[in-house]
């Protein structure tokens, strides 16, 4: 799927530079990386389970007396429900329960961020695929047939699918069509530049395409509560939402996180978890649902389709004077993460460049299109494609090299964002851009005649070599880390050590970002214990928050670090007291405890002496604040940056595009696990290539077309180019635990802009829409 293409044969680790062991591991130059602890390339803890087929996917769960669920979904994007008749479905043999909006005992609406989405549509249907009813039966086929037998009478209404028309349309929701408006004002509105370029850009609807079926199992409890087994990425929020809809106290609902195959957004849709729990409570039996891929496409959130209008002002030397922009996000039927996505889009609308004057208008609106929400780099990815298109236009109009134009404008530490926030974290943007610019270009086909030249469109493509043009383009992007605008970021972790084995208890969900491996490394580093286990996650543990924006590397990793250091103090204090020294004079390495003078030398096992030590700690980064009425405020905890140079071959007759190479330089703070870091960057680049060239969930008047993996084109291993990580800048962020920055979102943000830039270079066409359509890459007399 989207995040797996990094393991493609031509995205090999042989293209990676050797990471200097002295920068992030504490070893001297030229030494081998450590075998354990921070800086080691520990493999993921779940590798064996996944390869042997024992990984606990929710779709494989079973329980005695199991029933199967199916949802009836609306075939219309906008309609009034006149009646719902469930009698035929309820009378079918094997059917145990049918529930609609009338059977929701608690809150009828839910929402992870804004409570505006009904469990079941009651009076109005607002998007194609919205749940109407749910059925539980003794066989999955019976459940599906029963759901299809529910008779719903609709009055079909005209859908609002153009976000520009949503402003004047009749309200689609009691909360109105406008979710949020941010007017950012920074500097002098009258400022102008000698050179002005304008552009209109459109970004398509990218689906997160999670690996594996979305599935859940609901099991009723003797106390009248229910347990939900699912691959949740935010279990405590999902528990609270479900409890409110069930009319139960949160402590009577438990969410147990099963194995998460992978996630690049909110993994499981609460829109089927909650109906599943209702059916379990109604029947008194365990109920299971494994969503089809079509149901996933219809139900879960996608990347916001976005319309962007830009005007850039610059002086004759290419230095930016003012940026004006209008940004319109299509939220679909419900708000979800649209407010946060809009804040990121507006705040980063000028990119990682110094802009003295900025005037940005941003809106997020409801339509009858599929729901939009959290997908890696939301908001930042869309504006990156637009502002980098503008930088290419400026470079062409002024007549200077595109990379040089960018270098004249890049941010650095101490500069001020258009939101008025000072960049206090490391911001080595110029260093990153120079690294990809100066990296040797891949050989042209004429330089390697002994090799087969892979034409755009593949080896069996219809193209001719004479019609192929090569282009080189750049993308420079940024993302924020953790939550924003006053989000209370906190995570709790417990570390327990007994008989030489450490256990970490933390509700941070492993979604493929490597948290469980990082937790092992932290404990190994601090306590010198080789065997470290990370407990399974459920809501009986203290909350750790959602698995987004690299939170668990920073916040949950920070909590594990603090708890491990408290255990370390408990371990060392008796020894320090016995030898009349402070614990700071003792060190732990390779399972041994030694003093600075060599007088004390013992093993961790001997010092433990059969005792059980444990500690619980929290990590809470410094607070942020919401953007004010002028878009000003210290809204972000930290920032991460990336530069990408894309090399593409374009068949200018057919419009076929092949990405030849992606050179990446990234600001990572500190390398904690070299191999996992490389995989995360490669996966992010590949997901970005999908957004640039193939991924667009198409709709026709609000109806999702081809909601399956044959109609939605994900990049595969054959589409992955050579991905060369040419530089990792390890300038530690002093406010982050270990100094590290999350790594996977910023390549997703930057790669689409770089690919589009390279296609412009090859064709001379404006390329103002993502994914790039073939006709946009065709060059002929009419163009």
Automatic annotation (TrEMBL):
Residue span, Aldehyde oxidase/xanthine dehydrogenase a/b hammerhead domain: 52-158
SMART domains: Ald_Xan_dh_C
Top-level division of the source organism's lineage: Bacteria
Chain spans, region Disordered: 1-46
SUPFAM superfamilies assigned to the protein according to its UniProt record, in alphabetical order: CO dehydrogenase molybdoprotein N-domain-like, Molybdenum cofactor-binding domain
Protein name per the record: Molybdopterin cofactor-binding domain-containing protein
Source organism: Streptomyces stephensoniae
């Amino acid at each position: 799927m989207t995040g797996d293409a990094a393991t493609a044969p031509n995205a090999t680790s042989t293209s990676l530079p050797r990471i200097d062991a002295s920068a992030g591991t504490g070893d001297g130059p030229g030494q081998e990386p450590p075998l354990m602890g921070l800086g080691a390339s520990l493999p993921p803890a779940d590798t064996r389970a996944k390869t042997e087929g024992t990984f606990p996917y929710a779709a494989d769960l079973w329980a005695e007396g199991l029933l199967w669920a199916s949802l009836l979904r609306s075939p219309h994007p906008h309609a009034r429900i006149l009646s719902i008749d469930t009698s035929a479905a309820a009378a079918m043999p094997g059917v145990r329960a049918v529930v609609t909006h009338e059977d929701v005992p608690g809150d009828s609406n839910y929402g992870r961020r804004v409570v505006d989405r009904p469990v079941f549509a009651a009076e109005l249907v607002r998007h194609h695929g919205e749940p109407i009813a749910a059925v539980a039966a003794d066989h999955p086929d019976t459940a599906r047939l029963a759901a299809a037998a529910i008779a719903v009478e609709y009055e079909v209404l005209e859908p609002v699918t153009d976000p520009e028309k949503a402003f004047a349309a009749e309200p689609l929701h009691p909360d109105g069509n406008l979710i949020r408006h941010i007017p950012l004002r920074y500097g002098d509105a009258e400022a102008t530049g000698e050179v002005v370029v304008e552009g209109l850009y459109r970004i398509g609807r990218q689906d997160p395409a999670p690996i594996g079926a979305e599935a859940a199992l609901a099991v009723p409890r003797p106390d009248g509560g229910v347990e939900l087994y699912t691959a949740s990425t935010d279990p405590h929020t999902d528990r609270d939402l479900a409890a409110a809809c069930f009319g139960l106290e949160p402590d009577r609902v438990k969410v147990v996180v099963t194995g998460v195959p992978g996630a690049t957004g909110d993994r499981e849709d609460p829109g089927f978890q909650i109906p599943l729990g209702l059916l379990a409570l109604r029947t008194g039996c365990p109920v299971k649902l494994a969503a089809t891929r079509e149901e996933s496409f219809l139900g879960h959130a996608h990347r916001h389709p976005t319309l962007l209008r830009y005007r850039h002002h610059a002086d004759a030397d290419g230095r930016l004077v003012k940026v004006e922009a209008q940004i319109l996000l299509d939220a679909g039927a419900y708000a979800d993460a649209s407010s946060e996505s809009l804040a990121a889009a507006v705040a980063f609308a000028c990119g990682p460049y110094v802009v003295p004057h900025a005037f940005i208008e941003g809106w997020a609106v409801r339509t009858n299109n599929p729901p939009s929400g959290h997908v890696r780099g939301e908001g930042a990815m869309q504006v990156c494609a637009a502002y980098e298109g503008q930088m290419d236009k400026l470079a062409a109009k002024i007549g200077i090299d595109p990379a040089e134009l960018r270098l004249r404008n890049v941010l650095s530490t101490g500069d001020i964002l258009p939101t008025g926030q000072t960049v206090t974290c490391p911001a080595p943007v110029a260093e990153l851009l120079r690294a990809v610019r100066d990296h040797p270009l891949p050989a042209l086909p004429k330089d390697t005649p002994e090799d087969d030249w892979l034409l755009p469109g593949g080896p069996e493509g219809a193209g001719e070599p004479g019609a192929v043009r090569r282009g080189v383009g750049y993308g420079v992007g940024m993302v924020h880390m953790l939550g924003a605008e006053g989000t209370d970021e906190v995570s709790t972790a417990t570390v327990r050590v007994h008989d030489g084995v450490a256990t970490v208890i933390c509700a941070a969900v492993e979604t493929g970002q490597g948290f469980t491996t990082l937790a092992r490394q932290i404990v190994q580093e601090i306590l010198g214990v080789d065997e470290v286990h990370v407990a399974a996650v459920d809501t009986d543990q203290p909350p750790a928050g959602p698995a987004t924006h690299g939170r668990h590397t920073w916040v949950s990793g920070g909590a594990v670090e603090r708890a491990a250091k408290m255990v370390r103090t408990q371990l060392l204090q008796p020894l320090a007291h016995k030898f009349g020294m402070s614990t700071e004079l003792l060190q732990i390495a390779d399972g041994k405890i030694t003093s600075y003078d060599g007088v004390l030398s013992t093993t961790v096992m001997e010092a433990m002496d059969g005792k059980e030590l444990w500690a619980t700690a929290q990590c809470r980064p410094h607070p942020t604040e919401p953007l004010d009425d002028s878009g000003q405020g210290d809204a972000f905890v930290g920032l991460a940056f990336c530069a990408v140079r894309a090399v593409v071959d374009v068949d200018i007759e057919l419009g076929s595009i092949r990405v030849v190479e992606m050179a990446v330089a990234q600001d990572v703070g500190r390398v904690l696990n070299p191999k996992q870091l490389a995989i995360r960057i490669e996966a992010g680049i590949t997901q970005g290539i999908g957004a640039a060239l193939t991924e667009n969930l198409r709709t026709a008047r609000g109806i999702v077309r081809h909601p399956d993996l044959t109609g939605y084109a994900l990049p595969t291993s054959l589409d992955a180019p050579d991905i060369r990580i040419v530089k990792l800048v390890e300038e530690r962020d002093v406010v982050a635990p270990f100094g590290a920055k999350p790594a996977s979102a910023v390549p997703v943000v930057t790669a689409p802009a770089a690919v589009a830039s390279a296609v412009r270079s090859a064709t001379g066409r404006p390329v103002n829409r993502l994914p790039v359509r073939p006709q946009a890459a065709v060059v002929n007399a009419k163009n």
